[in-house]
Amino acid sequence: MHEHQIERARHVTTRLSGFAGPAVLGLSPWTPVGLRDPGWMPRIETLTDVATWLTVTALGLCLVAGVQHLVAFQAAGPRLRGQQRRRSIRRRPEPVAGSGCPVPHGSSEPRPRARRRVASTEVDRGEAEEFLRLFHAENPEAGPVEARLEAVLREIDATGTYWHTAEELAFGARVAWRNNARCIGRLYWRSLQVRDLRTVGDAEGVATHCFGHLRAAGNGGKIRPMISVFAPEAPGRPAPRIWNEQLIRYAGYELPDGRVLGDPRYVELTRELVRRGWRPPLARGAFDVLPLVVETAAEGPRMFPLPAEAVHEVELEHPELPWFRDLRLRWHAVPVISNSRLVIGGVSYPTAPFNGWYMGTEIGARNLGDKDRYDLVPEVARRMGLDTSREATLWRDRALVELNRAVLHSYQAAGVAITDHHTESVRFLTHVEREERAGRSCPADWSWIVPPMSGSQTPVFHRYYDTAEQRPAFVTDPDAAQRGLLGAPRAFG
Ligand code: ARG
User: Which residue ranges run through the membrane (predicted)?
Assistant: First the structure.
């Protein structure tokens, strides 16, 4: 075993980086409220003092906002400087498609006032209508929309929600993919296979069908883009939830010396699942698959170990560097995002795991390369014999390329579908063109679309995109995002 090669130092502060703005505000003149006078604060005794204080405070806030904006503008780089839209500095997140979406769709839109019997989960009529009109416009064979719209509105009046036809469900799921601004692989959005599992809402049923999804989508390496749609949210009938960010995730174990064995991203989740009774393998490794956690209102959270044959993995080797195998690296074949909510025409499907196939950089540049993930670049560079004494030798870049070559080579050698970032960038622009020819705009988030290595060598780097969000959509709620990392808070009770 070469565990020591993949164990790594723990990084605890990175998740705080998104809070730089509020932290700066914390130093603003509001700081002394409720605190001891630090001595350097001005005294406020007269009305004029109050007025002066308020003016200074307002100016201070403007200055902070201005500086933040300027920094964001600079950070976005020269190619974005012409853009009018405000950008904030956020760390480029772990590339989980659809995760971390900050604004749940429809949340800020006014709802009709009438009929609030089951207000908390009642479907928004406006969203239902918008979706049905889209469905009928893009599927002329479905006939005119009016009759269906009337039936749906009556169903919402009676029950607070409505049941999609199989065709509406499949179309809605495909369009949610088409609308996913962070996904570079949308050219094949029409090919998404939709498993209609809307009658399944119990934990065991969800877990069993998820394992079925892994087998069917894995398809012996010829990966099929697929989504399994489980029970929808309905008034008085809360839908199940999956805690894990993806069906397959690797445990992270904190070692006594503070380093981590496995995926540091899941140290807290692993600890929580162990506390809940999950027993890791006797010989812990760097790639131990975590159990699937399904939470329902009736049963609470339940853990299900993944059957080994449902977990297809690829062992990594390099086409020219024989020692690469000794690192004993591997990754799973199919990335199935499992904590995003699919929203179609106002109906929420919180459990709707979906997958495509990997782009090599997701594994080689991010999962294995990021400092707060497996952090393998220094080890690869060392073994390559590179001069790591100075940044200017570009040892990081050189090692990163070889790590990524190993990923692409190993998946291809194992007959598992994977794509590279150059091919996928060209395909994406084909997709954007096709969408425009169909009279649609293609929402895209530059910071997610541009690959994490060799960005300027790909055509997706050299242009702007429409950013307006569109529905149907995949949405990751903040509490779902937390559950995927921490195993808390529970969705129910
Ligand atoms: N970036 C995620 C990961 O590395 C997967 C996100 C979905 N990726 C995809 N190719 N469909 O596991």
Answer: 50-77
